[in-house]
Structures are given as structure tokens and as C-alpha cells.
Amino acid sequence: MARLSPSDRRDAIVAAALAVARQKGLAATTVRDVATEMGTSSGLVHHYFESMDEVLAAAFARVAEADLARSADEMAAADGPVAALAAFFRTYAPADADWAFQLWLDAWAEAARRPAIQATTRRLNLAWQALLEKTIREGVAAGQLVAADPGAAAWRILSLVDGLALQVVAHGTTIGRDDVERWAASAAELELGLAPGALGSGA
Amino acid sequence: MARLSPSDRRDAIVAAALAVARQKGLAATTVRDVATEMGTSSGLVHHYFESMDEVLAAAFARVAEADLARSADEMAAADGPVAALAAFFRTYAPADADWAFQLWLDAWAEAARRPAIQATTRRLNLAWQALLEKTIREGVAAGQLVAADPGAAAWRILSLVDGLALQVVAHGTTIGRDDVERWAASAAELELGLAPGALGSGA
DNA sequence: GCGGCTATTGGACGAATGCGCAATATCGTC
DNA sequence: GACGATATTGCGCATTCGTCCAATAGCCGC
After folding, report:
1. B41 touches strand C (CB under 7 A)
2. Which of B30, B106, B34 is nearest to B63 (CA)?
3. Which of B128, B150, B185, B191 could form a disulfide with B136 if both were Cys (CB 3.0 to 4.6 A apart)?
4. Distance between CA atoms of B126 and A177, rounded to whole angstroms?
5. Which pLDDT belongs to residue B132?
6. Could you tell me which residues come within 8 angstroms of residue A83 by beta carbon, excluding any fewer than 6 positions away?
7. What is the pLDDT of residue A97?
8. Distance set, CA A69 to CA A2, A76, A131, B76, B142 (Å)
9. In whole angstroms, what is the distance from residue B117 CA to residue B121 CA?
10. Which residues lie closer than 8 Å to B158 by C-beta, 6 or more apart?
């Protein structure tokens, strides 16, 4: 196989692990799966990663960080805190990303047993909460919304979206995909003292 | 080993599976673990269950159904819909039941790949939502609370508690255990047009 | 007390797991 | 064009997995 630089090879391993995890699940992704997907031998994986735990954590981190960056960009580009929050709900759980949220489910569950995965999910959940809290604080400072405890409000909004998306991804038919964005946005409007529809669809 | 009736043996298998799953996780529980815990041979497990998937689903169902029944009882015994909702928040995520919620996490993640588990988590999530929706409807009928869409309100409340509890169990230190009950209750008060503290601690 | 039904045993089977290591191939450097 | 560093190979190792099945043991009705 082509001889790659360590940094390129690490990327390739993570990309291959991700491709496998997407269809087999994070926990069920094996060293040999990754090697086969990459078109190399299995020994190569352990030449770059100490354990499978770290490979999976890196794979999960890649999608999760990309999603976070994308939402953060859209929120930063929005016109003010309220529009930023609307962007959050619009981009957080896109309809074509069930597999990405399934990765979150896998990672949360595995966190209890795999240290590297726990560190990653924890770090990214905190980053999401910090992003929301910062936006809420800006909105409060601008007098556009109300929040007695911006940190708690951020946790509530984030957790609500996660809890709703969980139902969609795990069970499919209990809740509609549209409901997640709509319901979460309307709860946030109430939470932050906004007018109904302020964070809602299209507006 | 003592020869048990089929029904007793099934119970024993489920109980043993539960004991193992509690400390090793649902997905990591094996046939041999269950047999060892039970003090019998491993072949016995497959004499009563077609596959490991069904053993795990039955084990999860046992705790989840017991928890649901316990909360439902306390809610039914409460004095009116508002007190019933307060009982819900008090009993949903007890401090000593992190392991039970970890089972939920495991089950949600496994649902995508194990049919028996998905059917179980789906059924129980729907039951929780129905319980909440019924209580909310009673409160609306009694004029004690406001909800334009009781079904949606029930999903929001349930999902918020799940999302918050998820952070506690998966990450431990991000959110405090007390925050789950307190924050979820205050969000529900807002959602249902109740006075702050109406569902809160001690009252 | 005896016979038959069946709960239970305990290991076989094939496939899969993470990880490690000596051998080999390939690239950049002089 | 040869050399040295190292990326890559390919298999071995020791376990573990779910499932299956013939043999055994224990209880109930007669």
C-alpha cells in the first residue's frame, strides 16, 4: 500500500473508522473492519493508536467537532443573538444526519466504559452548552431575551433537543423529525421570554 | 442445580442478566456471565431464550417496567394532577439509580441493531409519555394548568428529563444530580403555566 | 417405587476479538 | 544509485463470543 505520512495515515484511519462506525455502530467497529475499509493490514491501526478506544474516540470527535463548527459558524453569521438561536435549532439535528446522532447515542452509552470516548463526549457537550450560554448572555445583554440563569437555560435547551432527537433516532416513528426542531424552538421561546415563532420555522 | 419450573427459571435468568448488566453494561453482558451469576451451565440460557437479544430486552424491561410502575403508583396516589407531576419529577431519576439510567442509555444505543431491545424501549418510552399526557390532560380539565398540546408537552417534559439525566450519568461532573429534578421541574412549570415552585423541591 | 418427561449439563464449534511482533517494502537523503 | 529510517505487512496468540446438541439428572404422576 502507498506509504503515507503519519499525519495523513492517522487521518485515513479515522476516516475509515468513521465509515465503518456509520453503518455498524461505534461499539461494533473492529480493528479489522477499519483496516479492510482502508485497504491495508490490521497491524497498521495499532501502529498509530494505542487502543481501539482511542480510534473510536477520534472517529466520533471528527464528526462531532465538524457539526459543532458548522453550527457555530452559522450562528456567528446570524444577525444577532435571536437569529443565532434560530440557526442553532435549524442546524442542530438535520434530517439527513440520523447516523450522526446515532453516533452520539453510541458514544454516550460507551462513555461509561471507555475513558477516551467519555472525555470526548464530555468535552463536546460542554462546548455546545458554552456556545448556547454565550449566545443567551449576548441576548440578555442586548435586552432581546430574558434568562435568570443563562447557564442553566443553555443546559435545558441542549438537553431538550438531545432528548427529542434521541426518540427520533432510536425509535423512528414515535416522534416526527420536524417535531424536534419545532417543539424545542417553542420551548426555548418560552424559556427565554421570546414571542411564539421568534425562533420558529422559516422566520 | 435445583430444578425450577420454566416460569421460575425464566425469572432467574432475567434476574441474573440484570445483575450482570448492572455492572458490565447491557451490551457487554454475555451468556456465560448470566450462567455463572445464576450458578448454572450456559446452555440453560438458550433453553429458555431464543437469542441473547431477547434475554437483554427482558432484563431491561424488568427494571424499566418496575420504575414506571413505581412512578405511576406515586402519581396516582398524589392529590391531584399538579401533585402527581411533582411526584413524577421526584421519582423519575432518583439519585441512587444511575445504573438504571445507564441501562436506558445502553438500550437506546442498542435499539438500532437489536429488534427486541428497540421494541422494548419504544414501548416503555411511549408508556411514560402517555402517563404524562394523561396527567396533563387532567390538569387542564381541572383548570389547574395550561397546555395547548398536552401530547407535545408530555414529550417535551420527558425528553428534557432524559437529556439532563443523560449528562449526569454519562459525564458525572458536568451537571449536578439535583439540577436534573430542579431544572426539569422549573421548565415544566413554565410550560404548563404554573407558578414557580409549584412542582419544585419539597412543596 | 418406577418410568417417562424435561430441566439441566458441559463441552464442541466456528467465528470473531484486541493486540503484538518479526519480516518486508518503500520512501527521502546523501 | 545505495543506504537508512520507518511505514506497512501478515500472521500468531490467547480469549471470548453466541449457538447448538447429545448426554445426564431430577421431579411428578402412576
Report:
1. yes
2. B106
3. B150
4. 16
5. 98
6. none
7. 79
8. 32, 10, 10, 46, 47
9. 6
10. A163, B125, B128, B129, B132
Q: Nearest nucleotide (C1') to the CA of residue A31?
A: C18
Blockwise average pLDDT, block size 10, chain A, 203 residues: 90 97 95 96 96 96 96 96 96 81 96 93 97 98 96 97 95 85 94 90 49
Please give the DSSP secondary-structure letter assigned to residue B149.
-
Interface test with A, best of B160, B169, B186 (most A CBs within 10 A): B160
Q: What is the DSSP string of B74-112?
A: HHHHSSSHHHHHHHHHHHHS-TT-HHHHHHHHHHHHHHT
Tell me how far apart the alpha carbons of residues A25 and A99 are, in angstroms, rounded to a whole number.
9
Nucleic strand D near CB of residue A3 (< 7 Å): yes
Nearest to A49 by CA among A102, A78, A10, A92: A10
**Å from B105 to nearest chain A CA?**
5
User: Which grid coordinates belong to A180?
Assistant: 424536534
Kindly give the parts of chain B with pLDDT less than 70.
1, 95, 201-203
Q: How many CB atoms lie within 10 A of CB B15?
A: 15
Whole-angstrom distance, CA of residue B33 vs CA of residue B27: 12
pTM of the model: 0.93
All three cell numbers of B83 = 401533585
Q: At what angle do helices B98-111 and B6-24 cross, to 10 degrees?
A: 100
pLDDT attached to residue B173:
74
Contact A159 B167 (CB under 8 A): yes
Residue of B126, B148, B123 lying closest to B137 (CA atoms): B148
